[in-house]
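ok so for the tutorial part 2 we go from a plain amino acid sequence to predicted structure tokens. step 1 is just haveing the sequence, like this:
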Amino acid sequence: MSKAIPHQPLMFSLFHILFLLILITTDVGHCFKDNKVLILKKFDQREDSPTPRCLPQKSRREKSLAILEMKHHDSCLGPIKNWDNKLQERLISDNFRVRSLQSQIRNAASGRTEGLSEIQIPLTSGMKFQILNYIVALELGGREMTVIVDTASDLTWIQCQPCKSCYTQQDPLFNPSASPSYQSIPCNSSTCQNLQFATGNLGVCSLDPPTCNYDVSYGDGSYTRGELGREQLNLSSMAVNGFIFGCGRSNHGLFGGAAGVMALGRSDLSLVSQTASQFGGVFSYCLPSTEDDSASGSLILGNDSSIYKNSTPITFTKMILNPQLSTFYVLNLTSISIGGVALKAPGFVNGGTLIDSGTVITRLPPSVYATLRAEFLRQFSGYPPAPGFSILDTCFNLSGNAEVSIPTIRLHFEGEVEVNVDASGVFYFARSDSSQVCLALASLSSDDEIGILGNFQQKNLRVVYNTKDSVLGFAEEVCSYS
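step 2 — the prediction. this is what the tokens look like for a chain of 482 residues:
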């Protein structure tokens, strides 16, 4: 008599099949959650050292590139007595910069030039509250000095002797009379006549001597005034002869020890345009974390991607060419995804998005921001809410958590370019104990305003500006100077 076939192996197999199906289903559910882990203790505010650490900044030359160490501007400051006030003031001034920038864009789009001095990008107002965040060192006329990097500015300027009215800076003031290579620019020159394109104001002739005077006034009442000059500029020992800059004799604003501003805009007077023969109109930066004063990144002038330390391939999107906004860097932001969920909002089709190294918090059209906020709250749930903080209206109490899992924010640009926002760029820590942590994005006043990609969301990215080919590239990179 034959043996009965045992049923146990069949039951065992069916059990394993069901178990695998459950695992697969669970994994499918998780694949919709595109998250990053944020360690909260990294964002605790520390006591600053009593001595500012603005200088020296490092620089080096590799191949045909100039590489400048880039630091957050807080490394130039003294001790912070009240972190809560400082963080609030940063956002207040950042909001003022955005309003002034939107006013400038509206006037440029309408063809108006009058009153531009009243609505220029508030470089000095930003520094009043220490928010134009990143600095590098350069050498002008044989003197090393620290300057603030700004991609939305078109005239590089520094404070000069004799100074009628100057703010306090760490380096000695530049003395053009002591430099044999310095030359004043005459008022009848084409450079002086074209000054309005870069500053919004016509060059003014002084009588004795007949030199070209510039005047840049900002919306908060701060300003820089002086004469246009030419001087030898050295960037990582690479000489730029006859560099045109503003020699500021009267400057109002608190710049936290920096000597002036390095202009990386697109006008003929910007550093990018003036060094095009050396660097091909290409520069890139990697903005370091703002949580660690010792952190540094790099500003690289020139086009050789083998120098970069990116961990993902560089992908390029087109710059939007708008003759009325020709000095700005504008991109076509086509969508944003939160945790893998693509957002749909009418604001994505309006006028492009400006990328700016001087604006801190990214601004989005109201329709886009409302959609983003709703999806973020849907995915980041279970944490008690906290009061809004200045321009930030979506805040949480994360105290008591060592780390949290946050939805990945991914920016989508024309040409299928995807940019992941670093985990450190998702939340703004209003309080060091994590009791008030806010989504670091804000809404514009209307969908007619142009969006702005701020530096808070550009951290730990290699951002490549190629003005010759009118493209801008992104890649992930852990920022460091070395």
